[in-house]
Specification:
- This protein is mainly β.
- The chain is built from 3 helices and 9 strands.
- The chain has helices at about 25-30, 85-95, 125, and strands at about 10-15, 15-25, 45-50, 60-65, 75-80, 100-105, 110-115, 130, 140-145.
- The strands form 2 sheets. Strands 3-4-5-2-6 form a 5-stranded antiparallel beta sheet, with helices on one face. A 4-stranded antiparallel beta sheet has the order 1-7-9-8, with no helix packed on it.
- A hairpin with an 8-residue loop joins strand 8 and strand 9 (about 140-145).
- The protein starts with 8 loop residues before the first strand and ends in a 7-residue tail after the last strand.
């Protein structure tokens, strides 16, 4: 009796929001603010991180994605976080930016999808556009795409 593999499952996460940070000094800017070691996030990968108060209390937890190219920028980072905290984090990042040559923008037209099971972590269709969740192999892939997408491509 053969066992057929589990099907790939995916689900949208409509309660997540996105902020894009791009520019020559985007990595150095984030490195000084967030708990994640930004220098170790290779292009095409992601890592969890947080913004803390000076006393060490968590203000915002997030997933930080390093994209090799964003629109007309060579390199950028996308922060995915709880939708209700996006405005506050955006305001804080703009305040800390000072005169750095970076662009910070809220991205309103993206939606996060979580993909797991079956061959989700090895399917080239998904891994080419998705990010493996670094916290645990069974957490699958994270993919973001247009808000009007009905399912993963």
């Amino acid at each position: 009796m053969s066992h057929s593999p589990d099907p790939v499952s995916y689900a949208p996460c409509p309660d997540r929001g996105f902020i894009r940070i791009a520019g020559d000094e985007a990595g150095a800017f984030l490195q000084g603010l967030l708990t994640a070691n930004i220098d170790l996030i290779a292009a095409g990968h992601c890592a969890p991180g947080a913004l803390l108060t000076p006393q060490g209390r968590i203000l915002h937890d997030m997933m930080i994605y390093h994209r090799a190219a964003c629109e007309d920028m060579d390199d950028c980072y996308i922060i995915e976080m709880a939708l209700d905290g996006v405005a506050d984090l955006f305001t804080r990042l703009r305040r800390y930016r000072l005169r750095r040559p970076i662009d910070i923008a809220v991205i309103d037209d993206l939606q996060l999808w979580i993909c797991w099971g079956g061959d989700a972590d090895t399917s080239s269709d998904l891994t080419d556009r998705g990010f493996a969740d670094p916290r645990h192999p069974t957490l699958g892939l994270r993919w973001f795409g247009p808000m009007d997408a009905k399912q993963l491509p």
